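Researcher: Here's my situation. A collaborator sent me these components and asked whether they could plausibly form a single complex. I don't have experimental data yet, so a predicted model of the whole assembly would be a useful starting point for our discussion.
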Amino acid sequence: MDIPVVVATDAPANAQPAPVLVRLWDEAERTVKAQRQPQSPPRRVEAAEQPARVRYAYD
Amino acid sequence: MHTLTCPLPLFQRLLRLLAEAPHRPAFLRVGRHHTPAAHEWLGRDITLSPPSPSAHPPEPTFRVTLAAGQPASPPEPAPPAVIGELALGVGRQQGRWWGVVHTGETREPLYRLALVGPGMYRLSAQGLPGPDQRSGEVLPARWSRTIGALGGEGVWQRLAQLRIGIVGCGRTGSLVAVTLARLGVQEIALIDPDAVEVHNLGEMDAVTSADIGKPKAAALADHLRALLSPVPVALFPVAASVTHPTALSLAKSCDVLFCCADNDAARLATAILATLYHRVLVDIGTGVFYSGAASGARARTMGADVRLILPGDGCLLCRGHLSNYAQAVDDLCNHRLPASAQRDWRQERAGSLRTLNQVAAGIGVQMVQDLVAERLQGSTWAHVEFDGAGHLAVSYPPAQPPDDAAACALCAKAGLGDAGLAV
């Protein structure tokens, strides 16, 4: 991907690539790529149930 | 010292926007959390246009861009209200990041990027000190089984580096505190306005008759120190309710807040803090009740609700709410956080059982372990019931946070930080 340096900082970069950032960027690119593919019709969404309510509140 | 804290779902959305249009910057609106020692910026939402210069008050914003190389100097001045820059590396720089905060005429480095969610990653910039790591020869041996079961030393280190606050240090809270300390968590804040009483000795963990009359938080801290010796652990006991300024200041600096209080006002106050400051909230409530006493056939209802709420994934109110919200609001607005000693517990419940507290505390701590290990991928709620025959059932009620965060009064204030407390 041809990305120019569009903004700059004079802060030091982290020394080693963070594996979690590598993974998250890969996931973002995959998601965007998948969204550009033809989509199948959206699934029918069932009517929402009554929200559940908490019951216990002591220590 | 500047930190940018961002809920993981928001950060993922930011990355997707940048992946869609790599040449266009995104703008991350942020809330503020200022302390004498640090400045924390809390990611709130994303726009593709710069903040309006006419907004009053101006909305502090980070400009976020992609960078394929080491940035040198800004090609153009930051628009008004852009108080910080975050550049995320791509290509050969993938996995690296740079950040600065504009402070008047100078620029200060962004010290840490904290992603609140599965993994609980806190990424430190080069040349700046990272989170303290547990180290030393004795430590791996001490926690070798735990490290093995959690899934590796990286998971355990991330868990041990969290600052965890416990609001309510009685039956459930003391069990949570001891379990976390034994896991190796290095910083634990203990908040409780009550003193140890005789009846606490039956179910509360780690206290003895010598502690009667002492603040629960201080008594628990003393026992945790002795328990872990010689391993250092930073304990911050506060003998006050969570709304007291000292407790408030401490609670909002924690990464994870456990609420183990016995009243909904403290529960609501803790949930508000967690929402405003993007903290992970673990809310634990238990109860044992009897009915039908007059007929002689007394039916027992006994169980617990344990909820883990992640920033950006609903709040306590839209994930199960409170058992008595109106009373909680009234108590909070009128500064009535009732101490246990001022209430007649018999009017509220049949009693307490340490076994039930142990089950609930164990589930809550397990949720945090699974969050840090990335097994748990979102907010969750375990509803625990012991039936009349003593059989245990755990169900997970469906999550129904609103599609639009603005529809929930509390979610709408997510990440607002100090400005939310001033309202």
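Model: Some features of this prediction you could bring to your collaborator: Residues 19-36 of chain A form the longest helix (18 residues). The helical segments of chain A are 19-36.
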